[in-house]
Specification:
Length: about 450
């Protein structure tokens, strides 16, 4: 009996996702636990495993298409079984997206022009979902059908890119996310903005201008320039998720803050010595993360997070690293930091940060962790307070190392100082416990050889 696969909630609180890449095709036999599709959310690309065994009868959406969680994306059944007609699909969409068993697909004269991958995760009852790509005006005028997913249209719009004349690298010439990324890398021409009306991009007709009431010039207009109206920018899914999660964190997690200054002259010298070895390159942030893990070894009771069932004590240092993206940030987690050498840690952080910026993180890499590190020192920020990212119980905000007066044995001298601010969850960390952990961190930073032990 045929089973409808629906878009899964691959990450908590995600309401919409896209199939970045199908890992199966119509006619394929699949087993439970077999990679089925790469699902793209606003923060990561997650490899979705099949939860139903059988034969792939039909893929309902194309690569790059975004749908709501729970929407049908594929149909799985028995070999030779005919996929049931979807009441949601219009006749044109059904003709466009219908797939055939592998044996007959080879004989179809225009098989390669049809979108190759159109499927979805599982459930039982079909939900209404529109799957037909919408051709652009220029395509309609030319009589050609273009396959562009809603996700790609949004990315192109946000980046100001024109997709006119672009031949996609996806199945059947579909324009997919990697094509937009390639255009950005090659400096492709931008499209004229069409979403938000403004005095520049949408000038009023001459007749309306003549009758419009005069207003007193302000700002740039008073200085002889043209006053520009505010521009309404579309909110990305990542931005919406960040706004929702951090607002929830700030309103539901009782934050408190502790600040300390670390003298880092010896830490910087250690870094110079390590980087003098051929083939090795570490950052101050790598040493900071390693010191965080060492401080949890010194104060293990601080490595605790809150759950509704009780407090969860962790026995490994799984630390999230804040990575800045063009349209937000993501916090991939490095597991078992206490067991990594500083060079292995540096390689792991670099790999996660690189794949985060390319949208290539996996589900398990952005989930969990008991603590996070956010470093703005490279921007010259001296000190700041960060917001906890649940379920983690704390985050360390790291500022820039700077020359500052310090007192040594009653005498004043110039040293290099770095300010750090701990944001702690008061449900599991009391002031004294948080202060003990922060003191342990400062001690590790100021005696950096102990970090390498």
């Amino acid at each position: 009996m045929a089973t409808t696969i629906r878009m899964p909630e691959v990450l908590a609180n995600v309401t919409e996702a896209a199939v970045q890449k199908w890992l199966v095709a119509p006619g394929d036999e699949i087993a439970v636990g077999q990679p089925f599709a790469e699902i793209e959310t606003e923060k990561a690309v997650v490899e979705y495993m099949a939860e139903t065994a059988g034969t792939v009868l039909q893929l309902l959406i194309g690569e790059g298409d975004a749908v709501e969680v729970g929407a049908p994306i594929a149909i799985v059944g028995e070999a030779g079984e005919v996929a049931p007609a979807s009441p949601a699909a219009a006749p044109a969409a059904a003709a466009e997206l219908a797939t055939v068993p592998a044996a007959s697909a080879a004989s179809a004269p225009h098989a390669e022009a049809a979108p190759h991958a159109e499927a979805a995760p599982h459930t039982a009852e079909p939900l209404p979902v529109s799957v037909a790509p919408t051709p652009s005006v220029s395509d309609a005028a030319a009589g050609a059908r273009r396959f562009i997913s809603p996700l790609v249209r949004r990315l192109a719009r946000e980046q100001g890119l024109s997709l006119d004349g672009v031949r996609g690298s996806g199945p059947g010439g579909r324009i997919v996310r990697r094509d937009v990324q390639a255009m950005l890398g090659s400096g492709a021409p931008s499209a004229a903005p069409t979403d938000a009306p403004s005095a520049v991009s949408n000038p009023a007709p001459a007749a309306a201008t003549a009758t419009a009431p005069a207003t007193a010039p302000t700002g740039a207009a008073a200085a002889g320039g043209a006053a520009l109206a505010p521009e309404l920018l579309p909110t990305s899914r990542m931005r919406k998720t960040i706004a929702r999660r951090l607002a929830e964190s700030k309103s539901t997690v009782p934050h408190f803050y502790l600040t300390a200054d670390c003298r880092v002259d010896r830490l910087l010298e250690l870094r110079r010595e390590i980087n003098s070895i051929d083939g090795i390159k570490i950052s101050v942030n790598d040493l900071v993360v390693k010191a965080v893990a060492a401080a949890f070894f010194d104060v293990p009771e601080a490595n605790t997070t809150w759950t509704d069932e009780g407090m969860l004590r962790h026995h490994t240092a799984d630390i999230a690293i804040a990575v800045s993206l063009d349209d937000g940030l993501v916090t991939p987690v490095v597991r078992g930091v206490e067991s990594l050498t500083v060079t292995a840690l540096a390689a792991a952080i670099t790999d996660l940060a690189t794949r985060a910026r390319l949208g290539g993180l996996k589900q398990h890499e952005i989930e969990g962790g008991s603590f996070a590190v956010s470093n703005l020192g490279m921007f010259g920020t001296q000190a700041f307070s960060a917001i906890i990212n649940p379920p983690q119980a704390g985050i360390l905000a790291v500022g820039a190392a700077r020359p500052a007066p310090v007192v040594v044995d009653g005498a004043l001298e110039v040293g290099t100082v770095m300010t750090v601010t701990l944001s702690a969850d008061h449900r599991v960390l009391d002031g004294a416990l948080a202060a003990r952990w922060l003191a342990a961190f400062v001690a590790r930073i100021e005696k950096p050889v102990s970090i390498l032990a």
